[in-house]
Q: What sequence folds into this?
């Protein structure tokens, strides 16, 4: 059974997750203006959407209310560290308490912020939060085969390709596969060990959660997921 969690307890969402390049914060209503700009962008839509062309303003507004402000998913705004410039959004949806898994999404909507390492770090922070702090087991995602920048960012964070929907998308005059990628907690732990890092240290500046044992992390996950 797939359990689509309605994440009621927003206390289990971090207020902030700090990295070296970016700071992830909860969305605020004023971020809607940026959301509209990002999701009206034709190139963002080309890279990330099945449909041909961007969302309508009405779709974006609904998406923002449900995803960024609502409790359907855990969505964080991506800010550049230092300047605080808002450049994008990243999220977990389909939080599945029965199987300890979640689906990951990211959009850096400001094009001039592409290729600076922000997406890779935001993804790593989110994966560390899910698999480390919250004790989930698996994070997965989907990406179009032609989106090389995204695939490289995900690979750098430890995701591996586990499958492909062959010729699932028609774009730029030809068929492309949609790749399924995932990372397991064991792989994240192994990667951290290889880099000489502490896999149990939280990604967030949330020192209070440092050193939580396995049972405590699972408890947090269960409460996050409303179980
Ligand atoms: C995909 C995305 C999150 C990546 O974040 P980013 O900050 O732009 O990427 P990074 O700077 O972290 O770089 C990621 C990798 O892509 C590489 N890269 C950068 N520009 C590239 C380009 N034009 N073509 C191919 N690879 C590129 C980088 O070298 C890096 O790879 P490496 O670590 O092997 O060197 C971001 O570009 C984005 O949101 N794009 C628009 C929406 C989108 O595609 N979302 C994902 C849908 S699945």
A:
């Amino acid at each position: 059974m797939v359990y689509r969690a309605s994440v009621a307890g927003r206390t289990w969402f971090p207020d902030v997750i700090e990295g070296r390049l970016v700071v992830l914060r909860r969305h605020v209503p004023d971020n809607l203006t940026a959301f509209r700009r990002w999701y009206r962008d034709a190139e963002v839509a080309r890279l990330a959407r099945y449909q041909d062309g961007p969302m309508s303003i009405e779709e974006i507004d609904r998406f923002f209310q449900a995803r960024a402000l609502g409790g359907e998913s855990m969505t964080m705004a991506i800010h550049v560290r230092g300047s605080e410039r808002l450049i994008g959004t990243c999220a977990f949806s389909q939080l599945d308490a029965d199987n300890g898994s979640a689906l990951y999404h990211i959009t850096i909507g400001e094009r001039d912020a592409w290729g600076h390492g922000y997406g890779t770090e935001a993804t790593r922070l989110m994966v560390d939060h899910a698999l480390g702090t919250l004790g989930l087991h698996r994070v997965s995602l989907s990406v179009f085969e032609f989106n090389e920048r995204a695939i490289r960012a995900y690979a750098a964070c430890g995701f591996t390709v586990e499958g492909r929907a062959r010729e699932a998308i028609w774009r730029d005059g030809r068929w492309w596969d949609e790749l399924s990628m995932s990372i397991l907690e064991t792989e994240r732990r192994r990667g951290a060990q290889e880099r000489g890092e502490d896999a149990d240290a939280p990604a967030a500046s949330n020192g209070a959660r440092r050193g939580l044992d396995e049972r405590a992390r699972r408890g947090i996950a269960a409460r996050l997921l409303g179980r």
User: Anything to note?
Assistant: Confidence is low (pLDDT under 50) at residues 1-11, 204-212.
